[in-house]
Amino acid sequence: MPLKMHNTLTGLEDEIIPGGVKKNNIKDYPPVTIYSCGPTVYSYAHIGNLRTFIFNDLLNRYLKFRGFKVQHAMNITDVDDKTIKGAREEGVTLKEYTEKYTDIFFEDLKTLNIEPADFTPKATESIDAMIDILEKLKEKGIAYDKDGSLYFSISKFPDYGKLSNLDRREIMSGLRYDTDEYEKEDVRDFALWKAAKEDEPSWDTPFGKGRPGWHIECSAMVRKIFGKTIDIHTGAVDLIFPHHENEIAQSEAAYGEQFVRYWIHPEHLIVDGAKMSKSLGNSYTLMDLREKGFSPRSIRYLLLATHYKKQLNFTFDGVKQADNTLERVDNFLLRLNDIADGKENNTGIESIINTFLDKFTETADNDLNISGSLGVFFDFVHEINSLINEDKISKNDAEKVMKAIEKIDSVFGFIFFKDNKENEIDSERIEKLIEERNEARKAKNFQKSDEIRDLLLAEGIILEDSKDGTRWKIRK
RNA sequence: GGCGCCGUACCCAAGUGGCUAAGGGAGAGGUCUGCAAAACCUUUAUGCAGCGGUUCGAAUCCGCUCGGCGCCUCCA
Predict the structure, then answer these.
(1) Structural domain boundaries of chain A?
(2) Nucleotides of chain B within 7 Å of a protein C-beta?
(3) For A16-54, what is each residue's pLDDT tens digit?
(4) How many helices (H) and strands (E) does chain A have?
(5) For residue A273, with 0-12 CB atoms within 10 Å meaning exposed, 13-18 middle and 19 or more buried, which class applies?
(6) A4-270 CATH fold
(7) Which residue has the higher pLDDT, A309 or A174?
(8) Predicted ipTM?
(9) For A163 and B47, how far is CA from C1' in angstroms?
(10) Residues 155-184 of A with CB under 7 A from strand B
(11) Facing residues of A462 across strands?
């Protein structure tokens, strides 16, 4: 079964074929080249942004799980209207301002266990690559100059609109196109390069001082880093038009070859059924949620668990449900670790594990159906739990099961998630108290044994007795 | 007006023409346990927004209606 992903460009679920040439073995493919639209670093990222980045992470992790090599680039937009305005308001330089939010952004990614991209280019460090595109577009007569700014003439690019079906769409009457302050020949043309203004950052170029238009940086970075057609380009649905449409226009007009093979667009997140917005007061940052006591791990799970093509309705109740789900996962891991020596190996364990991994892959191959894969995972948990109850899992079997779980957690990233509470616990003291309690239990002094259990519970330590002994865990 | 996503149990959420509609959360009953906890078992949709149609057969395809959300405004 090949991996298929929904491609906005074709409207179909297309098999992912890195490099565009089909091979028999995944190992023979060149690395999958991926470019993701990253953040504009003018503020803290909100959970909607983070959903998109968690989707990118899932995609990258799954490709690697499937045996593909991956080269992933994600840009940092560090010059635009909002960053310039923000820096001015805070009275700092653009660089100081954007570096602050860039650092916070990377910290958020780390907190959510999102693997770093291989390349994280900044717009302000990619001006040369932009100039290259702009010169080619000028030579070809596709870009034109007006009052020191450069515009892209969409009438010169017949394919314009192929991503968003613009050619088949009518423009809503009365819609204001010209929100830009700059003059254009055709209202639908877009700015490639904006003429320098007083008190705005600018760069020297062969066509005068100025700063980048919004779309040019992505085209430039893709070219600078990969140098040719890339496989996958991701970004949330709102970017399909105009941003990605314009990227295609610039890149394909300048270089005369296909820009991207697969366009993948995760849906938006909404909050309590409504669009997230600052005026509704339902726009949350990661820090907001942590202050409310929600763990990054639960947030990762929640943002991951819904299929990326479906709008995700974020609620606090949802995070609590995620918390409970993860507790079930943790209990399962504890049970596996607690299996005592001396039990017989289960001859069927390999087959159970292989079936599990095959089903997991088969489900995820279908447009990254994470919800289906989670279902497969919980079926497996259930099956193994039952075997543990029946004493049909040896320590050796448990290790094999753990290996399989580690493997799929290379995709999920929430199973062995480290929440940093654990270090503060004095486990030696707890073990001692457990021993004391078990002696009391043996002597049928249940009053004392319950006292010890309550004492630990008050500290957030839960004790659980089983026929293999007593285990403890931290209460969430 | 154009383009697009969606409506599955109390909540979240798979399923893309064919066995009794995954899975998670929550609730109820049971097994185990000194008691708990954990785990396991049973249980909660003769029905998938509504109405028609295509088909031997539809949650799945088509049409219409109702409802939610998004983009067409440098929003992920």
Answers:
(1) 4-270, 422-474
(2) 1-6, 11-16, 22-26, 33-41, 68-76
(3) 999 999 999 999 999 999 999 999 999 999 999 999 999
(4) 14, 15
(5) exposed
(6) Rossmann fold (3.40.50)
(7) A309
(8) 0.94
(9) 39
(10) 164-165, 168-172, 175-177, 179-180
(11) A473
